[in-house]
Amino acid sequence: MLGALKRTFIFIHEHPLANKHLLRAYIRFFSWQFKSRMKKDLQPINFLDDTYFFAKKGLTGITGNIYTGLHEFNEMGFLLHFLRPEDTFFDVGANVGSYTLLASGVCKSRTVAFEPVPQTFEILKQNIILNKLYNLVKLINKGVGNETGKLDFVANEDTTNHVASAKDLDKISVEVIKLDDYASLNPIFIKIDVEGYETEVLNGAIDVLKNSNLKAIVIELNGSGERYGYKEEFIHKKLISNSFSPYSYNPFSRILNKLETFGTFNTIYIRDIDFVYGRLKSGKSFSLFNETI
Fold it and tell me: Considering only CA atoms, which of 232, 271, 286, 266 is closest in space to residue 80?
């Protein structure tokens, strides 16, 4: 318990936005602790603008947005500044839908959201219904890999649910598809967060990666691929070979900083930097903690 609390406090203090508004962030944190204990079921929380999400105690990914405004501030800020209503966004490993709600609820882009775990998918579906986004969001209750078939998944670890390895005991079987099955939808931006299975997602996305309409990929590279014997260096090289380069993004200044290699968490890979910069500079501002960004 104390360890989890300490990790949350560190997360708030290291968050680019929350650490500028610590009093407000802690008021949000303690208010949520009280509310989530008084009511155990899902309850709607205002996200950004007129967008809401369902939350309850234990949904650590979505509740991070309560304390900090945007759980993954730099990458979510990139999405908000980059996407337009005419775009298609792929949310691979959507969980309960933070990125999907920002893409379709705020930016009004079309989203294809892939989430394999049935319990998590049900909350994702409820979030889409809550925000009346049925016409903008296509929900796919399947995993994503390098071929069509079935895979075992761990399903009781919230944001860290993943393709089961030999060491995992509590497993469920889910259907798996390839991103190339949806290549005709021409995504301009893809988020991939599949807890170490990113290598296989990209192996099944050959046509998607070749499509020049795809300009940006946010991908989690934190070493979790090692549980399957994958090395993040190979992902980096694959994306470089498809003309992407790694960047970090500062939503406050709207500046991209080119990286020598991938980061230790999320990395933004960009192709056609002039196009992307033009989008970022002209993107609509958003407001959080009474700050316009």
Answer: 286
